[in-house]
Design goal:
This protein is an alpha/beta fold. Helix content is 29%, strand content 26%. The chain has helices at 2-12, 27-34, 49-57, 71-81, 119-124, 141-148, 165-170, 198-207; strands at residues 39-43, 63-67, 87-90, 93-94, 99-106, 130-139, 155-159, 181-187, 210-217, 229-236. The longest helix has 11 residues, at 2-12.
């Protein structure tokens, strides 16, 4: 908490700490600068971890919209964004249609998903076992995008939706035409039932006019050493 407070104070005076600049995650900061990103859409925000990294570790000072459907997590997200006029929070999830859906609440919160967890995921991370269910409101990015009036801005879309990424992209076919860069969580093996895998997303993103420019290693099996998930960053070609 003390360190975070120091970083926030320095940021107010124009001094930005970039501890992660040489790490795979930290290189996102370089991409944001290279592409002149003005708006980040943080889909699957949970309690604001990604937006905090952008602000306090990578020095991103532009507009952020964080989307989180779960009640308690959204309340904590609101508290995290308080005092930052360029960090907006929205209490909904995204998908391929406007709907009320039931999300499976995971033991560690961040792994909550609209999809059932796979046996492989539960075997390597038993702490994410579902402990309840919650009704959440789902909207499409196409609907929201027109409401945000982002025309003419360079937009970075980050999607971390625990296997539901393909449905979010399905509901974003119009808005994707205006989005500069997409960061997408992709599984190498099925982590949630019905999810697409990395080999499915590569041609899908190419068909939407994007090329892969960066990979960030993610979740891995500590017993076998196998990598299970990565984040891919795709830039409009």
């Amino acid at each position: 908490m003390i360190k975070r407070g120091i970083i926030e104070t320095l940021r107010r005076f124009g001094v930005v700490a970039t501890r992660f600049s040489s790490s795979p995650e930290g290189r996102i900061g370089g991409l944001l600068k290279t592409y002149g990103i003005e708006v980040v859409l943080d889909v699957g925000a949970n309690i604001g971890q990604y937006a905090k990294m952008l602000r306090y570790e990578l020095g991103y000072s532009g507009l952020i919209y964080s989307f989180e459907p779960m009640k308690a997590e959204f309340s904590e997200l609101q508290r995290a964004a308080r005092g930052d006029p360029l960090w907006k929070v929205v209490n909904c999830g995204l998908g391929d249609a406007e709907a009320e859906m039931t999300i499976n609440v995971a033991g560690n919160s961040a792994s909550s998903s609209l999809l059932p967890a796979s046996a492989r995921l539960l075997s390597v991370a038993p702490q994410i076992a579902y402990v309840g269910k919650q009704k959440v409101h789902i909207r499409t990015l196409d609907t929201i995008y027109s409401e945000l009036h982002l025309e003419g801005h360079r937009v970075y879309l980050k999607i971390d939706a625990q296997g539901y990424e393909s449905m979010i992209l399905k509901g974003a076919q119009q808005s994707l035409q205006h989005i500069d860069t997409v960061q997408l969580e992709m599984a190498l093996v099925p982590m949630y039932e019905g999810t697409l895998l990395l080999e499915n997303y590569l041609p899908m993103m190419r068909a939407n006019g994007y090329k892969l420019v960066h990979l960030i290693p993610g979740f891995w099996d500590r017993t076998t050493g196998e990598l299970l998930e990565v984040d891919g960053v795709f830039h409009r070609d």
